[in-house]
Each structure stands twice: as structure tokens, then as C-alpha cells.
Amino acid sequence: MHSGYYPPYTGIIIGYFYPCTGNIICIYIIFVKMERIMVRRKLYNKLLTHIDKKEFSIITGARQTGKSTLLRQLEMHCKELEKPAVFINLENKLLVADLNQSPLNLPWYLPETEERIIVLIDEVQYLGDPSNFLQLLFDEYA
């Protein structure tokens, strides 16, 4: 036993003190996944309160933690409420090049409507200057 180190989850403590058998590994994995789902659900509910506000909500986190999934869930929620929503994935290099040329090119990728559009941008870090991109959009359209 390491002195002074106590993992925050019971599942990890069990795995730490006992040999890794199939059952212990399964308990650990299920416990951790349930914890992630609970955290994601809390964040989802918090983000729902931001949808009607004139502000940006920025989600950060490690890779493969469900950020894109969370954005897709928000997109589906908006569409169920018949609120215009667009998911933009900036892993598309042509889109990134166009938006790097000018953030004001973004409206070309949005539906024509008089209603306010919820824009969910994934992988914003691929832009040349994400801070300027977000600031300019906020100044022009918020």
C-alpha cells in the first residue's frame, strides 16, 4: 500500500489492493463509466440553461471524454424543441481554411432563418486564432 495515496473511487481501491481478476476489473470499469455518465448528465443539464442566453459556453476536457457527444445531444435537444441548431465539426480542413480566412464566413454554413440559431462548434482549437474567431462572432452576432 502506498502511504498517503488514497484513490477517490472505491472501485480503484479494490483493484489496487487485490490481484486483477476479471471480476474486479469489470467492477472498476463499470463504476468509472457510471461516474462519467453522471458528470456528463450534470454538464448537459447546466448547458441547457445556457442555450437561451447570449453567451458562449466552452467545454474543455481530455480526448475521448464525450465532449462531441454532448454537443450532438444538445443539437438533438434543440431540434426537438424546433430551435434552429447547427453542429459544425472543425476536423473538416476545408471548413477550417474558410473560417481562418474570415470568421464572418460562418453564416454561409448556417440555415437561412430569422430565428436565433444555436451554433455548436466542435474542435475549435483547429482554427488559426480561436479566441479572435469567437470574439468576432460574439461582437457581430450576440
Explain what the structure shows.
This protein is mainly α and 142 residues long. Helix content is 51%, strand content 7%. Strand 1 (85-89), helix 4 (93-101) and strand 2 (118-122) form a beta-alpha-beta unit. 6% of the residues are buried. Residues 1-34 have low confidence and may be disordered.
Task: Tell me briefly what this model is.
This protein is mainly alpha-helical and 142 residues long. It contains 5 helices and 2 strands, in the order αααβαβα.
Shape: globular
Helix content: 40-55%
For the secondary structure, the number of strands is 2
Approximate strand percentage = 5-15%
In the residues, how many domains can be counted? 2
For the sheet with most strands, the description reads: 2 strands, parallel
User: What is the N-to-C succession of helices and strands?
Assistant: HHHEHEH
Structural class: mainly alpha
Spatial strand arrangement across the major sheet: 1-2
Low-confidence stretches: 1-34
Structural descriptors:
disordered N terminus; mainly alpha; single chain; 142 residues
